[in-house]
Amino acid sequence: MARQVKFKETMYNLAGPQLKPGDSAPDFACVTGLEMFKLGNTPAKARMFSVVPSLDTPVCSQQTKKFDEAIGGMKDKVACYTVSLDLPFAQKRFCTAEHVNNMQNLSDTHNHSFGKSYGVLIEGLPIPLLSRAIFVLDKSNKITYCEYVPEVGQHPNYDKAIEALKAVAG
């Protein structure tokens, strides 16, 4: 049976695998500005990927700001990314306007490889969107925590995600 997510009262299939703790993190090709960015470009330390449908929506905005604030004191120990299908220019505008300085943006608009590799690309919508999810990786690219939020409009478990990130950061 296909994995699904609820979006505006309708169930949609998710493309890709369902990852779990212990899995190796798949590679991806996202864009930052006009440059390609892959898993190998991330530093070998604790990392969190906060996946959102669009920064221009209330829950996604809150999620990004909440994690940005939570990791402020851990910046040297962790690298944290917001992944969406928003264009890099829109991501930059959002972060400037909202004073988001600790989270880096990754745009999956190039070929949706993050969405497909991490099992968060929503199928069947008129425009492509990613489902809300959190992935925490250790320095050797093993997934130590992941949460696939079952309904797009729901918040992730912020406390568990930050706790998992802190545990890996040491």
Would you kindly provide a written description of the structure presented here, covering whatever features stand out?
The protein contains 4 helices and 11 strands. The strands form 3 sheets. A 5-stranded mixed sheet has the order 7-6-5-10-11. The chain has a 4-stranded antiparallel sheet with strand order 1-2-8-9. The protein has a two-stranded antiparallel sheet with strand order 3-4. The chain is globular and about 40 Å long. The protein starts with a strand and ends with a helix. The protein has a single domain (27-169), classed as Glutaredoxin (3-Layer(aba) Sandwich). The longest helix has 13 residues, at 58-70. It is α+β, with helices and mostly antiparallel strands and 170 residues long.
List the helices and strands and how they pair.
Layout: E1 4-7, E2 10-15, E3 29-32, E4 35-38, E5 46-51, H1 58-70, E6 78-84, H2 88-98, E7 103-107, H3 113-117, E8 121-122, E9 129-130, E10 133-137, E11 143-148, H4 158-169
Parallel strand pairs: 5-6, 6-7
Antiparallel strand pairs: 1-2, 2-8, 3-4, 5-10, 8-9, 10-11
Structure described in brief:
The protein has 170 residues and is an alpha+beta fold. Helix content is 24%, strand content 30%.
Features:
170 residues, alpha+beta, Glutaredoxin, four-stranded antiparallel β-sheet, 4 helices
Radius of gyration, taken over Cα atoms and rounded to an integer in Å: 15 Å
The CATH class: Alpha Beta
Oligomer: single chain
Number of helices: 4
For CATH, the homologous superfamily is named as Glutaredoxin
Question: On the 0-100 scale, what is the average pLDDT?
Answer: 95
Sheet having the most strands: 5 strands, mixed
Order of helices and strands: EEEEEHEHEHEEEEH
Instruction: Order the strands across the largest sheet as they lie in space.
Output: 7-6-5-10-11
CATH architecture: 3-Layer(aba) Sandwich
Return residue spans where pLDDT drops below 50 for at least 5 consecutive residues.
Answer: none
CATH-defined topology: Glutaredoxin
Question: How helix-rich are the residues, as a percent range?
Answer: 10-25%
Termini gap? 38 Å
Structural class: alpha+beta
Overall geometry: globular
Task: Say how many strands there are.
Answer: 11
Strand content: 25-35%
Number of domains: 1
